[in-house]
Design goal:
Two copies of one chain form a homodimer. With about 325 residues, chain A is α+β, with helices and mostly antiparallel strands. Chain A is built from seven helices and 15 strands. In chain A, strand 13, helix 7 and strand 14 form a beta-alpha-beta unit.
């Protein structure tokens, strides 16, 4: 019976060289697997002889708050919400996890997400007095295997803020949505004053304001670990790791934004900011970069279901159609 | 019709929070996608409304040499060979690619594999005069998106060897098998004299010799980027990147080996070696480490379908059963 349910829930999509089936699963089913989240007891009737079995990836699990009792309806809301957020393609498929209002891919080596995907509209961002940021708490993500999980203690006395990748202010529909942005899997060590609390926050607000211009705004946010030329003339990647779990401190952060106009025109903007003090008077436009440069550095392809040639503008400049 | 074929080829396996379907696809089908290997035109009849579509991962594509005409039979051989190699679980599921005699996961950010998996037996390693190493050529892996692909030019004048992860000497059944180990996706920048050509080679030979002790030997090989305490008392990960594609030079390499005895007993050994000159007189045992330490550092779980409590020995020491 179980196998039937699984098969029914499986969306099959043909990738280049791969098919990925997708399955929306309740959080409660994860509980027994905390120790080895990526392994599972394999039901024999689900396998075919001669084909390898994939034992891994916590792929796109909608995570629902424990207080949420109405799982059935919630789940169906979630799956369509996730399709909406991820409409233009996944940047990569490494340890993808979906929350109620954002989706992320977790980098188990660096203990920071590879990318976080959000979908913003003016309506979704409107003032909601039900939601209280002061009630949110930074929480370790129990769905990540303990070997790879970042903890609050890692950040303590590190000198870095727990910086949101999916911004709290983007998820004001429900208290649960905002609380989920406080999961440590959505955090990266960020310089506090001058960055997280200032220029990075300016960029987050700028992206929210794009919902006044575009009907739909899609934003992908993540860390970069960029090389620098050192004294010997060679290039090195160098970054600090904090706490006993060695949480990586990214050298830079990116945001790739796609705005869709009411008449279905697409415009893209790409930003890279150093994880450092930035003067509040430095214009955000100074941090615009070609999207390809972020793709190369991050090892990801952004909005790959949306052909670049279909974009009207990149970084404010018209693309010859 | 195509959708039927795809669905038929899909193995569905229930992971914690995810189902991954697996599809063996011919290399020739990749040709048109060189520019955007991870994107694909989605057949509408393959999707269900309300479920997200995974647009990515070149998951476990058996790569067959172009000279190989008999694709049908080859493909079925490959899939069972891949199940054999991956019998005890995938360490991770990021950009998995399968060759005829080994399977790897490619790290698109660092342009070096995350891990390479091999299965060795005495019979498979026996002398074969059909196979000539001198005919093998280092070849860029065209199945990797050009943004993330390492090239021979990256290694040129870098001072590093193109070091095999799946060792050439482990794949002597067919010329094709050995040639595939010369794909640059199976290479990492390694210190030449004193490491690649010496102590690392000693370790590779040691692993081959384990086939005299065990009926089956499974070996997973990969790079590490380990942090070091610097002068300021903080920990930093620091590694060189070479060439215009910024191929990462790992600080260390690991090998996790599982030997299965004729009476189905399992023993595990784990080694970590610095990517540096190592004296030929240093015993290999000096490089043995707890497997968990490699898992934490690499962000991977090795042999996760094989419970650690079922192992008879780890690093030569008996485990209390």
């Amino acid at each position: 019976m179980k196998s039937m349910r699984l098969l029914t829930n499986c969306t099959v999509a043909a990738g280049v060289g791969g098919i990925i089936g997708w399955f929306a699963r309740k959080n409660s089913e994860l509980d027994n697997h905390e120790k080895h989240i990526d392994s599972f007891p394999l039901s024999k009737h689900l396998t075919k002889p001669g084909l390898p079995i994939f034992a891994t990836v916590s792929a796109a699990v909608p995570i629902t708050n424990n207080e949420d009792k109405d799982m059935g309806s919630k789940l169906s809301t979630n799956t369509s919400r996730i399709s909406q957020i991820m409409k233009h393609g996944f940047p990569g498929l490494d340890n993808v996890r979906s929350f109620d209002d954002f989706v992320l891919s977790y980098d188990r080596r660096n203990r920071v997400a590879h990318w976080v995907f959000e979908h913003l509209t003016k309506e979704r961002l409107s003032y909601n007095d039900k939601v209280d940021r002061s009630k949110c708490e930074f929480t370790a993500d129990q769905s990540i295997h303990p070997f790879f999980r970042s903890e609050n203690t890692d950040y303590k006395r590190s000198g870095y803020d727990r910086g949101h990748l999916a911004a709290a202010g983007n998820h004001k529909m429900e208290q649960t949505h905002m609380q989920q942005t406080f999961m440590l899997s959505n955090m990266a060590p960020q310089v506090g004053a001058g960055f997280n609390r200032d220029s990075w926050n300016r960029l987050e607000k700028y992206v929210r304001d794009l919902t006044k211009v575009y009907k739909d705004v899609y934003v992908c946010t993540g860390p970069l670990y960029l090389p620098k030329v050192e004294a010997d003339g060679k290039k090195y990647v160098r970054y600090e790791v904090i706490g006993s779990n060695h949480v990586a401190v990214p050298t830079h952060f990116y945001k790739i934004v796609v705005g869709e106009t009411a008449d279905s025109k697409y415009e893209m903007q790409a930003f890279v900011m150093p994880n450092a003090v930035i003067g509040n008077d430095v214009p955000l436009q100074n941090f615009m970069v070609p999207p390809e440069s972020v793709e190369r550095a991050a090892g990801l392809l952004f909005f790959d279901k949306l052909s670049r040639s279909k974009l009207n503008k990149i970084n404010g400049k018209s693309i010859k159609g």
